[in-house]
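One record is set out below.
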Amino acid sequence: MTDISKSFPGVKALDKVSITVRSGTVHALMGENGAGKSTLMKCAFGLYHPDEGEIKIDGKSVTLENPRKAMDCGISMIHQELQPIRTQNVMENIWVGRYPYKKTGPIHWVDEKKMYDDTKALLDELHIHDIDPYTSMGELSVSHCQLLEIARSVSYGAKVIIMDEPTSSLTDAESELLFAIISKLTAAGTAIIYISHRIEEILRLADEVTILRDGELVGCWPASELDGNLIVNRMVGREMTTRFPPKNRKIGEEYLQIENFTSADPSSFKDVNFHVRRGEVLGVGGLVGAQRTELMETVFGLRPLASGTIKIGGKQVEIKNAYDAITNGIALLTEERRATGIFPLLDITENTVVAKEAKEPEYFHMKNGLLDSKKRNNETQDYVEKLSVKTPTLKTPIINLSGGNQQKVLLARWMLTSPDILILDEPTRGIDVGAKFEIYTLIEQLVEQGKCVIMISSEMPELLGMCDRIMVMCEGKLTGILDGETATEEQIMLLASSYNK
């Protein structure tokens, strides 16, 4: 790709960016959120058309009008934001658009047996043994959906596979499986373009590293010449002296109390008890299947409760739905921002004020009952500036923002409701180191104000660096609560895998 430029209304996303990827190598693509990484790769996959520049494959210039043309040219892409067809099963998702057919007289039928056999062979080849091809995608975890997206990409037999944050939803064991798949693919001559903010993965996997900043090329280096500090400095253009902000917390009394919480789903969590104090960050650790998300979604009223009580400020409350949660001062930043967070076609303002309007319907109304557009925009602009959201205008559809900037808008949405209890489910998934630090700083500001923060995270350094206490779950059971200052990764892993049915 040579001198690729791409503009959107109000912003130049790419400015004469070039990248060369060699067969049989892993080429890492890095940069802060909004640097242009995903835009560049969407140009490579035919989702966007460059305003200028040239794309060559095996030395021949090509025009990639759409993803079908890109796949015909040997390029496939694993997207950061998963979009499975949840009402269809695993094998239908893998072979969508290319089902095998059999003929009975004049009628062509989908050959389900061949599709099943091909799916089983593909999953076995990739050592993905715990997924049944007949399982509905709607029943699978985020990590399993990610593995299947990887399997589908491999099934095309592509010469170039673009992987955008492929391990953001995977456990350590699943990440190791992915790394083995990558090694197998590159040994066979496939080129991998690997987008990730996890520097340790880049240094382990990559042969070369290309870094972008603000839509421009910073440079390309052999991975062997780089270390973590060099990568961060070249990504952000400034010295990152510390990974987490300094703590200045005054932890107060118990404010949220969860007692004997048992899910209405018998396969989920049972008899969970915990509390959160004012001015405290309570971390929630555990492996896939630990039921962390399910527990917090029940606290927020999104899932039914079989038994148990919630007390806020010493008073028992009943939370049957999200509206009850919001009116009781609880906010929930969900794990999958695309599926359950953003309203993709609405603009920044609409996405920011929606929860406040639900909590206080008259807040943005004028005396005549009409919406006060000026007040809505002023409130939104205030948080856009506080959180350093990179957007050309408040009228920009949120789908046009990078993942990290979308996450900041969702945080602004909940901050506008002035919650006393903020539940963050994987708040930094797929976010660069600079944006992570900004979110950590925001969390620190909230707890300094006496807010309660619950943070689910699969990144143990994040739990250890940000949390006062760490609650660990395993298969629906609370297996232990550790002091954040003295806890170790080994202790967390032991508790995350210790429960025996």
